[in-house]
Design a protein that fits this description.
The protein has 235 residues and is of the alpha/beta class. It has four helices and eleven strands. This is Cyclase.
Length: 235
Amino acid sequence: MTTATGAGQWRVDFDAEVVFSNGGSLRTEGFRLDIPGDDIEDAELGELLVRHLGLLMVGGTTITRKELIREPHKGSRNTAAEGGAPVRRTVDLTGPGTRLDRPAGAPEGIEGLVDLPVALVRLAGADEPVADRLALAPFAPAGHAVVVHTGRPDGPWLTPDAAALLAERGAALVATDGTDRDGPAAKALAEAGIPVLTGLTGLTDLPAVGTRLHAVPHPAGHGGGGGARVYGVAE
């Protein structure tokens, strides 16, 4: 098995049955999980499923179908490879139109530096890559930069209801590869006092977990007066 990162990441689409030692069973169809390499044995996949769902009193697992898919990780819980020394890497997320919009009254200059843990909402490839409340349900956004990866430069990327949820749960900043800065969601975030980063690039290479978002004001040549230089730093 080889370890894969960025564009070389793999997931597995599978059907399985989990039998519990105290009775009962759980069946899945078309379930998808991140895997730490480019292949996985059935026994290891069963263990990964149990770990991901936090299941107790499992008597056994059976994998009835399995298909490997090369696509970026979505942040499946408890599926990372164990052991080994951490490797620090930096992903430049700055595009020609990247800009940071702060609500009225927010600090400028050095006080506007960003260094926040990331909650990555991976929607690239979805029929409607727009984050709604349900898409945000698995995340704890308090104190985080919530990064919405849509895989497209235009169109809506967050519903107003989702923006309200992020405000309720204390998101520190919202970022996206989308460029819509004037839609209802962006306005709702501004009213809630949440800064917004738009026009990011390279989100496919951003690890799904364990990343911090760094951003500094950079008006010259990066989106005009609200421009920013943005990096993802991960171990």
